[in-house]
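We close this part of the discussion by returning to an individual protein. The amino acid sequence and the backbone structure tokens for this protein are reproduced below:
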Amino acid sequence: MTDAYGYPRQRMVRDLAARGIRDQRVLDAMGLVPRHLFVKEQFLAKAYGNYTLPIGEAQTISQPWVVARMSELLELEPHHRVLEIGTGSGYQTAVLASLTRWVFSLERIHDLGTAAIRRLSGMGYDNVKVQVFDGTVGWGERAPFDRILVGAGAPKAPPPLVEQLAEKGILVLPEGERSGQRLAVYRKGLKRVRREECEEVGFVPLIGRHSWES
């Protein structure tokens, strides 16, 4: 069967490479995951443009460049166990699942979480587990995690997430104010955690016990 979205998806991948994404595994994953299945019908024409789009419940699906850049900053290996905070539509989840062995994803909003579970299961992602819960608390019984990705803006990295990060692990999140953030990368060593800042971004706020209040 012809993939009507195959050409737009490959054009998106070429645009991501032109915008500076260098990790070929990430580019390959972005070329495989059908983003149009994660957006609302009225936005299908924009599915493969570099747009942030609403998914309901005052939440959004991140623009492809941000998804690719955050995935690249994680430096993922196929054997890694990844914790994602903020499942949303499940698009970033699917990209991560295409890159690594296990993805554990937490979504605060019940309707988004249950819809993502159905969508990802129906698409055959059997290496993903989604739970509806406060993501700022993490998923202690599944810890430690090799990598953690936070898909919402926080004033700082929630302490439980840093604690649940394995030694030599990497945590990536948008960090700053509610109105704008920078991507922050935390690298956990044996004795200390190093932090570096990257590009400016704009995410919805991370709501929870260890972040912004609702």
Q: What stands out?
A: Helices lie at 6-18, 24-32, 64-73, 91-97, 110-122, 159-164. The first strand starts at residue 53 and ends at 56. The mean pLDDT is 97. Residues 23 and 72 are 6 Å apart (CA to CA).
